[in-house]
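It is worth pausing here to work through a concrete case rather than discussing structure prediction in the abstract. The textbook approach is simple: state the sequence, then state the predicted structure, then interpret. We follow exactly that order.
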Amino acid sequence: MPSLEMLGSFTLSPLKIDEIVTRKGPGNFALGYVENKVFYVRYIGRADEDINSTLKSWVNYREDCNRFKFSYAPNARAAFLKHCEIFHAFAKGSGLSEKDHPDRPEGSDWTCPVCDYFSRPQPES
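Step two, the predicted structure:
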C-alpha cells in the first residue's frame, strides 16, 4: 500500500480539526475509515488556501468517511503536486471513490508530475 505521508488518523469532526489542524494554509488530506487498526482511504483532496476550513466542509458529507489524515504544504503548488502523486498512487484498485484526475487551481498552468493529463485536450464544461 502506498504511503500518504500524512499525520493521523483523527476523528472527522470540527472540534478535532480545530484541535489538530492549527495552522492556516494549504495542505492535503485523505478521508476514510478505520477497520482492524488500518486506515482505508476513500477520498483524497487538497486545500489551496486553508486546510482547516476545507476539512470542516467535509464533516458529515460522506457516510463512509469518519476519519481524516492531513499534511501541511508550503504553498498551493506543492499541495497540487502532492494531490496528483497521491491520486496516481491510490487510484487503481484502492477503493478510492474519485476517478477523475485532480484539477489544477484556476488560472494556473501547472502540470501533473506523473502524467500528461493537462497536455491532452480537455472536455468542454
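Step three, interpretation. The helical segments are 14-20, 51-56, 76-90. The chain is about 20% helix and 25% strand.
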